[in-house]
Write a structure and sequence with these properties.
18 helices, about 55% helix
Length: about 600
């Protein structure tokens, strides 16, 4: 049995109407994409991930992983899953056709990825990391590297892993110490990396590690970091294994959650040096790394949505089945879903999860347009939008996931605190999301420093202008109860931008002190605007007496709840921002 039932109606609605997949499909690269094709893909994905992958989630969490004799032993519950996933063709869905991919839009891929993440978050990290490696090599790999590695990665024949963190170099990659010494056309890599998700396994014949390291003459700091391909196994020109490379897992971390994902300590060069191959130019590794990180950050934001959906569905089912308390109208007992406070919690879960979904999907629609736009101006416009939305998606959706999964435990009451019910796993699994791929504090600083202040708010104001159009359409449809709070939140965002642009120049601590609340203000507002667009379209379907009236009514009520109970948070975030940072920095270190 599985707790997961993919939200296919909402996914199809977002892709085909809210985010106008047809407009993306008009681009030459996606000319064969149609609503019927997308519907068929999503239906099959829903069946596959619910029936094949999801049943492993709870068992793999209990079984965990371990290292024996220099290799990772994965949870037995996941035996055969990766092979089934590859045979079904899911790894190649959005891959470049010239390397064997199916070439579908990222907007389609993100809906499929959500279902994979909800089915088994730990398992989903493996293809996510492979996609990160693929993304980096697509942009920065040589022609020979692309020809050799990409077909095998895109098909799923080989897997990928990202090797960035060291014990002394977490978020501060300037402290990376792993060494890369040139020798006979390649490099010998020595050092140790930690927190390497899926750093070893036996699901594939090879794992392609992308490793940050320093060459002997590299300058200090982030300017001296290079990026290297370090295969687990060294292979011939046809991909046949010749010998094991000098890269081995030492241990796996004992984590709060995602127990089914082996998070490895990996050693390089204990027996003379791991063979590595330079990607691009020496000392450019940091910029290459962000190609991996930015795509991964959007996927992590999606994880917040995916785990939120799972937690909501489990809480909803429990609330319908759990009988407690007397009815107000009869002497009989009733399901706790009839209690107003339980309904409040469920709607907090449902509305924020749907808001996170439309926000994340929107970012990937802009990704498609930024890479396949009709002209350079169009591509640059959408690239700016992706840049703005990436830290918001990663930060806001994962903060929301912590709230939603905690509410899921609360709906279960005391039973939620018991591992056997499963609700606690979602809370444990969600907690890492605000930490990895750059903590949410780093996302907030990125949003202010690189995305707002760098161009003095040009890209942010472009975003606001588009949101203004959504609000105007909502108001024009007679939905003032939705348009008004959305417009008020947008006005608060504009006030915050002007305040930050003025204040950042005067105080070096200012941005860091207000960044988190600015990220939360932006996430709540932009997701709320996109929810308003959903409501406008749902309202039109209701007026036309379209099919599935229950779905459209539920969407309208969910959006209204979001406006009443979530949007008011934007006022608090603005007040905190405008209070500045004086008290944040007032204590000296000894006073803490």
């Amino acid at each position: 049995m599985t707790d997961y039932n993919p939200p296919l109606s909402d996914m199809n609605f977002l892709l085909n109407e809210v985010l106008e997949l047809g407009r993306i499909a008009e681009l030459a690269s996606f000319e064969d994409v149609s609503p019927d094709l997308i519907g068929a893909i999503l239906n099959e994905a829903g069946r596959f991930f619910a029936e094949v992958i999801a049943p492993s989630n709870r068992i793999a969490d209990m079984q965990g992983t371990r290292v024996e004799n220099g290799r990772v032993l994965t949870a037995p519950a996941m035996d055969g899953l990766y092979q089934a996933y590859v045979q079904a063709g899911w790894p190649s869905l959005i891959g470049d056709p010239q390397f064997g991919g199916q070439g579908l839009p990222h907007l389609v891929g993100i809906a499929v990825e959500e279902m994979l993440q909800s089915a088994n978050l730990s398992f989903s990290l493996l293809p996510m990391l492979t996609m990160g490696v693929t993304t980096a090599l697509m942009q920065f790999g040589s022609d020979a590297q692309q020809t050799y590695y990409l077909p095998r990665l895109i098909s799923g024949e080989w897997a990928g892993a990202m090797n960035l963190t060291e014990s002394q170099a977490g978020s501060d990659l300037a402290a990376v110490k792993t060494r890369a010494v040139p020798q006979d056309g390649h490099y010998l890599i020595t050092g140790q990396k930690i927190f390497i998700s899926w750093g070893d396994h036996e699901f594939t014949d090879n794992i392609i590690h992308l490793v940050l390291a320093r060459t002997p003459a590299a300058p200090a700091g982030v300017k001296g970091i290079s990026l290297f391909i370090v295969p687990k196994n060294l292979c011939d020109a046809n991909g046949k294994i010749e010998r094991r490379n000098d890269v081995y897992p030492v241990s796996v971390e004992h984590k709060l959650g995602i127990h089914g994902s082996p998070t490895c300590v990996v050693n390089y060069g204990e027996n003379g040096g791991a063979v590595g191959f330079l990607v691009g130019q020496e000392n450019e590794g940091l910029s290459y790394m962000f190609a991996m990180m930015n795509h991964a950050r959007l996927s992590v934001g999606l994880q917040g949505v995916s785990i939120g959906q799972l937690a909501y569905q489990k809480a909803r089912s429990f609330a319908m089945e759990r009988v407690q308390g007397n009815s107000d109208k009869t002497d009989g007992v009733r399901g706790i879903i009839q209690h107003p406070d339980v309904r409040r919690m469920l709607l907090l879960m449902k509305s924020q999860t749907e808001a996170g979904r439309v926000l994340t999907y929107a970012a990937l629609s802009h990704w498609d347009l930024s890479t396949h736009g009709a002209d350079q101006e169009m591509r640059e416009f959408h690239r700016r939008r992706v840049d703005i939305l990436t830290p918001i998606v990663k930060g806001w959706c994962t903060e929301t996931a912590n709230e939603v999964t905690s509410l899921g435990v609360q709906v279960h009451g005391g039973m939620g605190y018991i591992e056997e019910t499963g609700a606690a796993q979602y809370l444990r699994d969600a907690r890492i999301m605000a930490i990895y791929e750059g903590t949410n504090g780093i996302q907030a600083l990125d949003l202010i420093g690189r995305k707002l202040l760098r161009d003095q708010g040009v890209a942010v104001r472009e975003l606001f202008n588009d949101m203004d159009e959504i609000v105007a359409q909502c108001g024009g449809a007679g939905l003032e109860d939705i348009a008004q709070p959305t417009a008020a939140a947008l006005a608060r965002c504009r006030d915050a931008v002007e305040f930050i642009v003025r204040g950042a120049a005067a105080d070096s601590h200012f941005s860091g002190a207000v960044a988190f609340d600015f990220m939360q203000l932006m996430g709540t507002t932009i997701s709320g605007c996109l929810m308003a667009k959903s409501a406008t379209l749902a309202h039109s379907h209701l007026r036309e007496n379209a099919d599935d009236q229950g779905f459209w009514l539920a969407k309208m009520n969910t959006v209204r709840f979001f406006m009443q109970q979530i949007m008011p948070r934007t006022e608090t975030h603005l007040r905190i921002i405008q209070s500045g940072q004086a008290e944040t920095m007032a204590l000296n270190d000894e006073q803490f």
